[in-house]
Specification:
8 strands, alpha+beta
């Protein structure tokens, strides 16, 4: 008679410890994927779980519906229905949005280098190939927001790899900007490059966080480079770059018309019209409440 595979006690114990701390957890199978739905829940025919954005009130005892199965209930975690999952589990995941966190998943060295240059430092957790940067706050989740970068927060899961090191900081606008969807504009033929005559620049007089003009100059130069190197989704890249610049420099009054003109010129060199530049700038101001 074939003996049943024993439950991985380390996974189960860790899951119970996390749940006791208020972290909603779920088992992961091979390749770090969640367990598939049971036959009764396949294709969400059950209506989905109550905390999902679909109608219905699925009460399936099996860890169905991926991230929505995450729980802090020790009775569920140790239930017979989850016992099979724990026998096959290769890792533990948690729902970052369930504890008001956002994980910036950096999948390689290039992504880490980008984050080091563009994002504020926060708590970090090493992964197999990169790092998780963890911020306090929630936002929509999205994969592939830039090469090697995924966002895991609401309606998503992240692998539990330990508490990490460093001081956790609040979710910055620069991360939120990564998942903003920009409608594709109706393309027209590129116009002659021209610096805009007048664009809204945030009011002067705020507290400046930049100790030297070099910081601002480097930021504008990097923004120009990001736009210039865009090979696809140019309109979205322009918008996100404008948003990042305003997030970093827009509230202290450092930006001048000359700085904005450089950004507009870089965008127009990639085929953006002056109207598209103005729209992207105005939308970025609106998104940041400026």
């Amino acid at each position: 008679m074939t003996q049943p595979v024993p439950i991985r006690r380390d996974h189960l114990t860790s899951a119970l410890d996390l749940a006791a701390a208020g972290v909603p957890v779920l088992p992961l199978r091979i390749h770090k994927a969640p367990f598939g739905n049971c036959p009764d829940c396949a294709r969400n025919t059950c209506g989905g779980r109550p905390n999902m954005r679909v109608p219905g009130s699925c009460v399936c005892p099996w860890p169905c519906h991926a991230w929505a199965a995450a729980t802090t209930d020790p009775g569920v975690i140790t239930s017979p229905a989850w016992a099979r999952a724990w026998r096959e589990a290769t890792a533990i995941a948690y729902h970052p949005g369930g504890i008001r966190l956002t994980v910036v998943d950096l999948d390689n060295a290039d992504a880490i280098a980008w984050a080091t240059q563009h994002l504020p430092p926060t708590r970090t957790v090493p992964t197999t190939r990169g790092q998780h940067w963890i911020y306090a706050g929630t936002m929509p989740s999205a994969n592939g927001v830039r090469p090697g970068v995924d966002i895991k927060s609401r309606m998503s899961y992240a692998r539990w790899l330990g508490p990490g090191t460093g001081t956790m900081t609040d979710l910055p606008d620069a991360v939120r900007a990564l998942v903003v969807r920009v409608p594709s504009p109706v393309r027209t033929a590129p116009r002659t490059i021209a610096v805009p005559v007048s664009v809204p620049v945030p009011g002067r007089g705020g507290e400046c966080r930049h100790r030297t003009p070099t910081y601002l100059e480097r930021g504008i130069a990097m923004a120009e480079q990001r736009i210039t190197e865009a090979h696809a989704a140019v309109h979205a890249t322009v918008y996100r770059t404008f948003l990042a610049v305003l997030s970093a420099h827009g509230r202290c009054g450092c930006l001048t018309d000359a700085h904005v003109g450089r950004l507009f010129a870089a965008a127009q060199a990639k085929g953006e019209t002056i109207r598209h530049c103005n729209d992207a700038w105005t939308n970025a101001l609106t998104a940041l409440g400026m």
